[in-house]
Write a structure and sequence with these properties.
Elements: E1 7-8, H1 32-35, E2 41-45, E3 57-61, E4 79-90, E5 93-100, E6 107-108, E7 111-112, H2 120-132, E8 134-138, E9 144-151, E10 157-172, E11 184-188, H3 189-195, H4 199-207
Parallel strand pairs: 4-10
Antiparallel strand pairs: 1-3, 2-3, 4-5, 4-7, 5-6, 5-11, 8-10, 9-10
Helix pairs in contact: 3-4
């Protein structure tokens, strides 16, 4: 992976690959530029010396990427989803909320398909509510991208690319749309990273630091 880059938060809002505006400005904006970008895990760093206007510096963090397996599908068959990295801090330790899948019961993070007229981070927050009963605030900065194979039926799996957005959890509701379909549980980052199946998602969770997010 190439070296890191810097992008001020108060820079022009035209989308650019992996910048802080890459998935925030336009509802249902295509992430095709991100799929070909190699510097894709975004986190905020310190302001550079000599910068004016209090801009926030954004740096890229290296992740080990996995190959996308198309099988017999076409390139255009790759799907996009938006995911939520639900987090809180307890006793000085960052915790991540995981949920179980409806079919296999394996641990994962909330995610779902794009929603009409919603930004990616808004979609991630909506999925966090529907799948995990989360009330909170989503940060409109993509902290990583991972891929997985989604089962369409017993014989066909469709490759999916998931852009992950942090969601700070204020409270968990008892009554929510998928309350009777899934389990949910808090884990420290190291344990949560070990429980998910996707290596890229595991790395995103392990390296996640909410103290480095803007705002």
């Amino acid at each position: 992976m190439a070296g890191g880059f810097n992008q001020r938060r108060d820079a022009p809002s035209s989308p650019r690959c992996c910048g802080p505006h890459a998935l925030t400005n336009t509802p249902l904006q295509s992430i095709s530029s991100l799929l070909s970008c190699r510097k894709h895990n975004i986190s905020t760093g310190r302001q550079r010396r000599g910068q004016s206007g209090g801009g926030i510096t954004v740096t890229a963090v290296q992740l080990q990427q996995q190959p996308i397996r198309l099988g017999g599908l076409q390139k255009c068959d790759v799907s996009t989803q938006f995911g939520a990295l639900c987090h809180r801090v307890r006793n000085g330790k960052v915790q991540v909320l995981l949920i179980t899948s409806r079919e296999s019961g394996r641990w994962l993070t909330p995610k779902g398909w794009p929603v009409d007229n919603a930004t990616p981070s808004q979609t991630a927050l909506r999925e966090a509510y529907e799948e995990a009963g989360v009330e909170g605030k989503a940060t409109p900065v993509c902290v990583g991208i991972y891929s997985y194979q989604k089962a369409v039926d017993r014989q066909v799996r469709r490759p999916c690319i998931v852009a992950v957005f942090p969601v700070r959890v204020r409270r968990l509701l008892k009554d929510y749309p998928e309350a009777h379909m899934r389990k949910r549980k808090w884990f420290v980052r190291k344990k949560a990273a070990a429980l998910v199946d996707e290596p890229e998602l595991s790395a995103i969770i392990r390296q996640f630091d909410p103290a480095r997010l803007p705002g």
